[in-house]
Design goal:
Blueprint: H1 18-30, H2 37-50, E1 54-58, H3 61-70, E2 79-83, H4 89-96, E3 100-104, H5 115-121, E4 126-129, H6 141-150, E5 154-158, E6 166-167, E7 170-171, E8 178-182, E9 195-199, H7 202-205, H8 208-211, H9 220-223, H10 253-284, E10 291-292, E11 306-309, H11 313-322, H12 348-353, E12 357-360, H13 368-383
Parallel strand pairs: 2-3, 2-4, 4-5, 5-8
Antiparallel strand pairs: 1-9, 6-7, 8-9, 10-11, 11-12
The structure holds pyridoxal-5'-phosphate.
Pyridoxal-5'-phosphate binds near residues 61, 62, 86, 90 and 184.
Length: about 375
């Protein structure tokens, strides 16, 4: 048995405390836990924060991506370009809509969608592209949008890794037609599970409010005021209409209560992650075999992942595990999963480089001491 490690370092950890609890207490006191006024408040504050005109709260980024594509009613069988290296939801959202994912190789440096490979894979039946700001590193959106416009492609940004990030002074999630965010517990900020759909095109995303609420065209919490109101005796408060096949994808007031507190901390959390990444980068600068996963540019950035690349990936993972340091791999290329095998397209770079990826601990409440402990282990491995 190896000796017990000096420390245990988690991979991700949500930063939650008194502020979230205080907001939750308010929800409990009102005893309205479902879709309610706090969801609207969170949507409004989110819209203001990222400077977009409209936001729709949902229960995950998976739901957000699904509904974002639904907004366009693309003909069944149309094609949607997605990067080969991303989380499954970027592509399952395409399948949920009876569309076909076309996997595009990634740029070997930034790990986001390769614009060169994208150009070669665009065909007449392509209708949209879903760029992913991998790990929080921005896709060169001004270039991607030129390419998308030239081919009439809708741009849906998968912002699951970059809440609060800016690119060229403009918030990520506001460059494309629709931006989709994740508030899953491991992501940049959390509501337990949760997501947000954002756009400046109100007419496009306003109908998604019914789509996220089983197709119902009115919010129950607004009607409920009239259930017993003497001024509304003949208001037929119980009436609503269902005109579309919707989903049960709404955010609720428990999530929104947490989200309102998290949003206030988001800039701080992103700044703290930048500080820790700076420690990591300085700490491994002298390593010969271990290199940073991404070309980290820390100004204005909202990086969610810190990782490294190492040819001895599997040995390094075991080495860190023996020292109580949690790791992961983000991500195995999607076409390597059985579900996506039938959509196989050449992605030589992704297939090669993902085998060197290791994700390391990064979360706002991580201490400098913990970061130094991980760095020490990395440098020891590198020196062997
Ligand atoms: C986590 C993630 C999602 C899905 O987010 P959920 O809120 O868990 O549904 C989508 N895309 C990417 C790139 C992700 O990492």
């Amino acid at each position: 048995m190896p000796e017990k490690p000096r420390m245990q370092v988690r991979l991700f950890k949500p930063s939650v405390g008194e502020e979230e609890l205080a907001n939750l207490r308010g929800v409990f006191e009102r005893a309205w836990l479902g879709l309610g006024p706090l969801v609207t408040q969170f949507e409004n504050e989110w819209s203001e924060y990222i400077a977009t005109s409209n936001s729709v709260g949902v229960n995950s980024a998976t739901a957000a991506l699904h509904l974002a594509l639904t907004a366009y009613n693309f003909p069944r069988g149309s094609k949607v370009l997605v990067p080969a290296i991303t989380f499954a939801s970027t592509a399952t959202a395409v399948l949920y809509n009876d569309l076909i994912p076309v996997f595009v190789d990634v740029d070997p440096v930034t790990l986001s969608i390769s614009l060169t490979d994208m150009e070669t894979k665009i065909t007449r039946d392509c209708v949209a592209v879903i760029p992913v700001h991998m790990g929080g590193h921005p896709v060169p959106m001004e270039e991607l949008i030129v390419l998308a416009k030239a081919h009439n492609l809708v741009v849906i940004e998968d912002c699951a890794h970059c809440a609060g990030g800016l690119y060229k002074g403009k918030r990520l999630g506001t460059w494309g037609d629709i931006g989709c965010f994740s508030f899953e517990e491991k992501k940049s900020m959390t509501t337990g599970d949760g997501g947000m759909i954002c756009s400046d095109q109100d007419a496009l995303i306003e109908p998604l409010r019914a789509n996220r609420w089983v197709g119902i065209d009115k919010d129950t919490w607004k009607r409920s005021a009239n259930y017993t109101s003497p001024e509304a005796m003949d208001s037929r408060h119980w009436h609503y209409e269902i005109a579309v096949l919707g989903y049960k994808y709404n955010m609720n007031d428990v999530m929104a209560a947490i989200g309102l507190a998290q949003l206030k901390k988001l800039d701080w959390m992103n700044a703290r992650r930048r500080e820790l990444i700076r420690l990591y980068l300085d700490g491994i600068a002298g390593c010969r075999y271990i290199k940073p996963l991404l070309p980290y540019e820390l100004k204005d950035a909202a990086y969610w992942l810190f990782g490294v690349r190492c040819e001895q990936r599997d040995e390094l993972i075991v080495y860190l595990k023996q020292r109580g340091i949690a790791t992961s791999v983000h991500f195995m290329p999607l076409p390597l999963h059985p579900l996506f095998r039938e959509f196989d397209d050449p992605i030589p770079i992704s297939t090669e480089i993902w085998q060197t990826f290791i994700t390391l601990p990064l979360f706002p409440d991580m201490t400098d001491e913990e970061a130094h402990y991980v760095i020490e282990a990395l440098c020891e491995f590198d020196a062997k």
